[in-house]
């Protein structure tokens, strides 16, 4: 084999390799574009175990829809808040799992080397309103007294026996 044949063979191998890399790069770019579109459209949905509360979140875990059954009437506000919060967390976990699946497909195609960290929230135990004791509509839970939120009285030693001076006015 002459040196020109060796150079021609090497050039052919390099050309074939560059074509292979070009095709691989194009395939990965297309996969990334598809993934970007899929990630933007991800939604997560979850319902309470009794089906009375359903929540949907967007790709960032932001609540986009909350559905409450008419049967939630009579539930305590605390119980309803607990179930809604848990259902929203479950919906966010669902969205996170869907995003993870998109990244896993990218990793399988070689477009990314690893899946980004996406911690899973603690979604807790069973979420149901049917096991809570309904509150009669006329029953109102007692409220704890509010702390005094008035600003502290500032003593003005020159005028202690008169009315307090306003904190808005400059003391003279």
From TrEMBL:
GO terms for molecular function: DNA binding. This is YbaB/EbfC DNA-binding family protein. Residues 1-24, 114-172 are annotated as: Disordered. Pfam families: YbaB_DNA_bd. It comes from the Bacteria. Residues 126-143 have a biased composition (Low complexity). Residues 145-162 have a biased composition (Basic and acidic residues).
């Amino acid at each position: 084999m002459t040196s020109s044949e060796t150079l021609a063979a090497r050039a052919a191998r390099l050309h074939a390799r560059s074509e292979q890399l070009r095709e691989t790069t194009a395939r990965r770019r297309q996969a990334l574009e598809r993934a970007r579109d899929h990630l933007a459209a991800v939604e997560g949905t979850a319902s309470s175990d009794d089906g009375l509360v359903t929540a949907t979140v967007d790709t960032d875990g932001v609540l986009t829809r909350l559905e409450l059954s008419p049967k939630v009437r009579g539930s305590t506000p605390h119980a309803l808040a607990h179930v809604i919060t848990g259902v929203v967390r479950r919906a966010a976990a669902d969205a996170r799992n869907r995003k993870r699946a998109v990244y896993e497909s990218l990793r399988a195609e070689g477009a990314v080397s690893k899946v980004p960290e996406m911690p899973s929230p603690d979604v807790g135990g069973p979420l149901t309103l049917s096991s809570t004791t309904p509150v009669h509509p006329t029953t109102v839970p007692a409220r704890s007294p509010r702390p005094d939120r008035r600003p502290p009285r500032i003593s003005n030693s020159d005028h202690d026996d008169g009315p307090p001076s306003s904190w808005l006015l400059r003391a003279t």
